[in-house]
Design a protein that fits this description.
Elements (H helix, E strand, L loop, with lengths): L2 H19 L6 E2 L3 E2 L3 E2 L2 H16 L4 H25 L8 H19 L12
Length: about 120
């Protein structure tokens, strides 16, 4: 399994765990805050669960993993923009949730779009 495939698998697991945690009383505090920080909703929990499961499934090939990161990067960028612009009117979100979506978007876009080379050589001294 290539590194990109391991990365997509663990990214998918992270999203799946976050999505499932959003349904567990005690982890979600009064008012709907995951870990007392991130405002969550049923819709966002389901998005995290679905995107997480698709990520785990995308670990089968390098091409699928790269495609996943490109699509998910754009998806989370849109979620982050809506979160920052709407102030909770379009989506149930807060600044912390929007920052987290931005981090996910930047990570996924970087992994999906920045070319990598397998021919890395040590610098010449």
């Amino acid at each position: 399994m290539m590194n990109i495939q391991k990365t997509v698998k663990w990214f998918g697991v992270l999203l799946l765990v976050l999505g499932l945690a959003g349904f567990i009383p005690g982890i979600v505090t009064t008012g709907g805050y995951l870990f007392g920080i991130f405002l969550v909703s049923v819709l966002m929990n389901l998005i995290h669960i679905i995107v997480g499961l698709v990520g785990i499934e995308s670990a089968v090939t390098e091409t699928a993993a790269l495609r996943y990161f490109k699509i998910v990067g754009v998806l989370f960028a849109v979620i982050a923009i809506f979160g920052f612009v709407s102030n909770g009117t379009i989506m149930t979100t807060n600044t912390a949730s929007s920052v987290l979506a931005t981090i996910f978007a930047l990570f996924a876009l970087y992994v999906g779009f920045v070319p990598r080379t397998n021919n890395i050589s040590a610098p010449v001294l």
